[in-house]
Automatic annotation (TrEMBL):
PANTHER family: 3-OXOACYL-[ACYL-CARRIER-PROTEIN] REDUCTASE FABG, SHORT-CHAIN DEHYDROGENASES/REDUCTASES FAMILY MEMBER. Keywords: Oxidoreductase. Residues 8-148 form the Ketoreductase domain. Belongs to the short-chain dehydrogenases/reductases (SDR) family. It holds the Pfam family adh_short_C2. InterPro entries: KR_dom, NAD(P)-bd_dom_sf, SDR_fam. It comes from the Bacteria. One of its GO terms (biological process) is bile acid metabolic process. Gene3D superfamilies: NAD(P)-binding Rossmann-like Domain. This is D-mannonate oxidoreductase.
Amino acid sequence: MMFNLTGKTAVIVGGTSTLGSAMAKGLAEYGANIALTGRNIAKLRDLEKEIEAFGVKVAAFQTDVTDELSMQQTATDIERWADGIDIVLNAPGVNSTTPFSELSMEEWDHIMNVNLRGVVLSCQIFSDYMMKRGKGGSIINISSVSSTLPLSKVFTYSASKAGINSITQYLARELAPHHIRVNAIIPGFFPAEQNRNILSEERVNAIMAHTPMQRFGEPEELQGVAIWLASEKASGFVTGELIRVDGGFGAMTI
């Protein structure tokens, strides 16, 4: 019963991403109703069908995470559909390998808008609904191993994820009086859409040399920590934490 999420509603922001969709399925398996959000409605509909198999309520909401009006309307629609929002999982993400010296401000703005602005908007809008409802909640942000020690080749992505860590800990303090917990998951290397194009043989070898478990993570291996953080009974006194799921990458030295 400690991990039972029956009757709770989880909003998945960036629901069609590899990691976001895996965690959405994990939350659904433990009873949470799922509101999927994202730009690609066709992908959202496909995921919606998969999640229906868990016997929970699920609905797809097309939205642009960088657009405040779009996000506000989506939150209103989800509130009407669900009669309450308990869990928000923020998993939007884009990446780029553009070298720093060649980086345009247009590309910088695009990545920052999706990865950081989008999460700030989501936290602001959905926490407002949680506070008005008065029943607390859990916000889970998806960070990255590049958020603490920036990785080569992903300058803007690393900077955006460092921002995620900062806003997570700031909002944990800000929202604690309202019984809203805010935590972040720091995944290690989970091959996904935004990083497959930089996984050359040389880079894979470098990653494995720095990962004690000597393998990539599987998206399903993020489900457990997401379920734990979503559950008030299991992690009710946990907030402001940056939790690594990285095969030991963050603990590795020479």
